[in-house]
Amino acid sequence: MKVLVTGGAGFIGSNFLYYMVDKYKDYDFVCLDALTYAGNYNNIKDLESRKNYKFVKGNITDRDLVDKLFAEEKFDWVVNFAAESHVDNSIKNPEIFLKTNIIGTQVLMDASKKYGVKRYHQVSTDEVYGDLPLDRPDLLFTEETPIHTSSPYSSSKAGADLLVGAYYRTYGLPITISRCSNNYGPYQFPEKLIPVIISKALKNEKVPVYGKGENVRDWIHVHDHNVGVDLILHKGKVGEVYNLGGHSERTNLDVVKTILKTLGKSEDLIEFVTDRPGHDLRYAIDSSKSEKELGWELSYKFEDGIKETVDWYVNHQDWIEDILSGNYKDAYKEN
Ligand code: NAD
Ligand code: DAU
Description:
This protein has a single domain (about 1-185, about 220-250, about 280-300), classed as NAD(P)-binding Rossmann-like Domain (Rossmann fold, 3-Layer(aba) Sandwich). By secondary structure, it is an alpha/beta fold. It is built from 12 helices and 13 strands. The chain binds nicotinamide-adenine-dinucleotide (NAD) and 2'deoxy-thymidine-5'-diphospho-alpha-D-glucose. Nicotinamide-adenine-dinucleotide binds near residues 7, 82 and 180. The site of nicotinamide-adenine-dinucleotide has 30 residues, from α1, α4 and β5.
C-alpha cells in the first residue's frame, strides 16, 4: 500500500504521519508539502530515519509536478491535508486560499482519477457548516447540515468539498471526506488560539481575546482526529462524509483561563481586542455516524489533553522560538 499525505509538514499532517508511519510499517508513505510559512520541516525531520517514509517538497497546485509524482509512485491512497488553514489570513488575503484549497484539490483529484487511486480522502472542516447560535445548546452539526460558510477560508474548504462530491458523482472517483472540529496538540503553528496564548503567556505578554471571548469551539485532540481519518481510510464507505468532533465545547475565554491557570499565570494578562469580522459564534459536532459506523471513539478528555499540550509547548520553547525568529525556514535545507 502506498499512501500520499499532502500538507504533512503542518500541524495535523505531521501528527498523522508519526501515527501512521509507525502503525503501518508495511505501507509506504510519501509526504508532499510546499513548506509554506505554515509548513515546518522541524515537525517531521525525525521521520527521516523511517524506511517506509519519504519527503517531497512541492506544491499541490503544480500540475506537472503532481502528475509526475503520481506516475512514478503509483499511489493507492491520497490523504489531502494541504491547505491554507488560518481564518484571519483568509480575511486579509483570500486568493491564496482559493488557489491552494480549491485548485490544489482539483489537481490532486485529476491525478487520482488518471492514475486509478483507490481512495482520495479530503480532510475538511466543521467550518463548512457555518455556525450555531450560542443560546441553542441542543443544535449540533450533522453530516446533513447544509453548507453555509462565513469566511473566505471556510468558503474555500466548502468549495473543495463540493468539488470532491462532484468528482465522485461525475467520474466515480472513490472519495471520502472528514469534517473535524478545532484541533489542539503538539506542533500547532503559533498563529492559532492555543499556541498563541501559551507562547505569549510564557513571556508574560498580553494574551489577545477577540471580542468578549464568548465564541464557542468544540476542541478535539489532534490524535483523536487522526485516528478518525485512519478509520475512515480503512473502514469508511466510498462517497461518504464523516464528522469528527471533540464533545468538548468551551468558550474562548474558558480555554484561555484554563491555559493561564495551568501555566500559573495571572488572568490580568487577558486583553480583549477587536473582534474577527464575521466571527463564527459556535461550532459543535455530532459524531454519532463515525462512532456507529467506524467504531471511532475519543481517547482524550479536554482537561487532560490541554494539560499535556501546555506541557509540550513548555518543554519545546525552542520549537516556538525557531518559528518566531524565522529560523525554522532553514530546517529543510539543513536536513
Ligand atoms: P497547517 O496550516 O498547520 O498546515 C498546512 C500544511 O499544508 C503546511 O505544512 C503547508 O506547508 C502545507 N501547504 C499549504 N499550501 C500548500 C500547497 N499549495 N501545496 C502543498 N502543501 C501546502 O494546517 P492544519 O491545521 O494542520 O490543517 C490541516 C488540514 O486540516 C487543513 O486542510 C485544514 O483545513 C483541516 N482542518 C484543520 C483543523 C484545525 O483545527 N487546525 C480542523 C479541521 C480541519
Ligand atoms: O473548526 C475547525 C477550524 O478550526 C479549522 O478548520 C481551522 O483551520 C482552524 O484554524 C480553526 O479555526 P478557528 O478560527 O476556530 O481557530 P483559531 O485558533 O484561529 O481561533 C479559535 C477561536 O479563538 C476563534 O473564535 C477566534 C479566537 N481567537 C483566535 C486567536 C488566534 C482569539 O480570541 N484570539 C486569538 O489570538
